Automatic annotation (TrEMBL), chain A:
GO terms for molecular function: ATP binding; hydrolase activity. InterPro entries: CT_C_D, Cyclophilin-like_dom_sf, PxpB. Residues 1-192 form the Carboxyltransferase domain. Keywords: ATP-binding, Hydrolase, Nucleotide-binding. The keyword Nucleotide-binding applies. Gene3D superfamilies: 3.30.1360.40, Cyclophilin-like. This is Allophanate hydrolase subunit 1. Signal peptide: none annotated.
Automatic annotation (TrEMBL), chain B:
This is Biotin-dependent carboxyltransferase family protein. It comes from Streptomyces vinaceus. Keywords: ATP-binding, Hydrolase, Nucleotide-binding, Transferase. Coiled coil: none annotated. Pfam families: CT_A_B. One of its GO terms (molecular function) is hydrolase activity.
């Protein structure tokens, strides 16, 4: 765990793995809810870091956090949402080929994985989901699409994601989810918030 | 709601509704947003007896034209500009009463970029996630103003407005002489060549015309050379973060900045007067960075 002071009121804590990020993020939320964390406006997990913004005295907080015992996150910890998916994406055949499975087996590979939202970004409600075994990690498309339809289930690198709205993107598209990923009038606005576990099940035709 | 409202007659180059923004949602991918020159927004609201979180209009370079549909009191702050009511010159940086039907014309910013038009009671467009700010990066909040839009006005605070006469209205600092931005190194200063970092404190950049509400881009300065290759995994970004993309030219993140980013941050400009001045710096203005304590 390596704390880096960011300006006068933020702290970036660098970790070695996504699992360590998930564990520290959960610990930070626990301590914030228990009133132990003090002033903090934003807790922002990312790929290998957690940012604490709106902190009074980031250096002192860094010293405190360095002394914490952070337990690893249990696989069963965190709320679970189930998202139905139609496997109708334009890259389905290519993804099946890269994974070395038949097209109809892609749903099984995805469905057997319990994903976790590692962090959000790119657009409100877009979650970067980890959990896919390493042999299924994919590179981005050579040429990004100018418009990826809303609801697209997509893969790139170690991540899976569902586009909350139509936007450009270079991820490989395997299917479509009808779930409302983002609705600022809803509480919570984002279906995929950091720490949430996600299962994709094949929608009945 | 009071029933008072203003109609947009001339929208200007880019006029948006802005308040203090929506902090606290970065973990969901929602930028902070809010007025770029937060000091000017605060002053406009104080002049009118509004709470600090009241929403105002932020104009870009060429002002805005509004028609009062009921009697209202307004104030214009930020970048200095000519202010007229139905053709007659009135005070900038002071409360101005508009009769029903009167037209407020907020002129071209000179110097600076962004003027703020506040109304007593605040603009009462529907809030999204606790804020009325337009977020241009992620498309949250009210649409960019267009002619014909009717903006409702909220209920006014207590009367009379206390202390408004005693407020000192500042000019816009640093926009003619050049912009000087205090920079606190880190968190990724070690990604750059030490010689390149040392040169940063002596370097003169210029504000690039590609600057916007997301960031103040620089041009014409020395390229910051990387000491290490490879990619930085995406990480959380703060307001005022100075990110250095592969072209080596610093970008100062302003209110609509993305919540995470993948380029190293060489340092942070603390929010406050310097960042407010950055929001008022026109393309071509010289920029220097000085080491912050």
């Amino acid at each position: 765990m390596r704390p880096l002071v960011v300006g006068g009121e933020a702290l970036l804590i660098e970790l070695d793995s996504a699992a360590e990020v998930a564990a520290l993020h959960a610990e930070l939320l626990r301590r914030r809810d228990a009133g132990e964390l003090g002033a903090v406006r934003d807790v922002v997990p990312a790929a290998r870091t957690v940012l604490l913004d709106g902190v009074r005295g980031p250096r002192a907080l860094a010293e405190r956090i360095a002394r914490w015992e952070v337990p690893p996150l249990a696989e069963t910890e965190g709320p679970l949402v189930t998202v139905p998916v139609r496997y109708d994406g334009p890259d389905l055949a290519e993804v099946a080929r890269l994974w070395g499975v038949a097209e109809r087996e892609v749903a099984g590979v995805v469905g057997d994985t319990v994903f976790r939202v590692a962090f959000c970004g790119f657009a409100p409600g877009f979650g970067y989901l980890t959990g896919l075994p390493e042999r299924f990690h994919l590179s981005r498309r050579a040429t990004p699409r100018t418009a990826v339809p809303a609801g697209s289930l997509a893969f790139a690198g170690e991540y899976a994601g569902v586009y909350p709205r139509s936007s450009p993107g270079g991820w490989q598209l395997v299917g479509t989810a009808d779930a409302v990923l983002w609705d600022p009038q809803r509480e919570p606005a984002a279906l995929f918030a950091p720490g949430v576990r996600v299962r994709f099940e094949e929608a009945s035709r | 709601m009071t029933g008072a409202a203003l109609e947009v007659v001339r929208a200007g180059a880019l006029t948006t509704v802005q308040d203090l923004g929506r902090p606290g949602y970065a973990h969901l991918g929602v930028p902070r947003s809010g007025a770029l020159d937060a000091g000017a927004l605060g002053l406009a609201n104080r002049l009118l007896g509004n709470p600090p979180e009241a929403a105002a209009l932020e104009t870009t370079l060429d002002g805005v034209g509004l028609r009062a549909l009921a009697p209202v009191t307004v104030a214009v702050t930020g970048a200095p500009c000519a202010v007229r009511v139905s053709g007659r010159a009135v005070a900038w940086g002071a409360p101005v009463r508009l009769r029903a039907g009167a037209e407020l014309e907020v002129g071209r910013a000179e110097p600076g970029v962004r003027s703020y038009v506040a109304v007593r009671g605040g603009f009462a467009v529907p809030p999204v996630l606790g804020s009325r700010s337009t977020d241009l990066l992620s498309g949250l909040g009210p649409a960019v103003l267009s002619a014909g839009t009717v903006l409702p006005v909220g209920p006014a605070g207590p009367d009379p407005v206390r202390g408004a006469d005693a407020l000192r209205v500042p000019g816009v600092p640093g926009t003619r002489a050049g912009l000087v931005l205090p920079l606190r190194p880190g968190p990724r200063a070690d990604w750059f060549e030490p010689a390149s970092l040392a040169a940063l404190w002596r370097a003169a950049f210029r504000v690039s015309p590609a600057s916007n509400r997301i960031g103040l881009r620089t041009e014409a300065g020395p390229r910051l050379e990387r000491a290490r290759g490879g990619e930085l995994p995406s990480e959380g970004m703060v307001l005022g973060a100075v990110q250095v993309p592969p072209d080596g030219l610093p970008v100062v993140f302003l209110a609509d900045h993305p919540v995470t980013g993948g380029y190293p941050v060489v340092g942070v400009v603390p929010p406050g007067p310097a960042l407010d001045a950055a929001a008022q710096a026109r393309p071509g203005v010289p920029v220097r960075f000085v080491r912050a304590r």
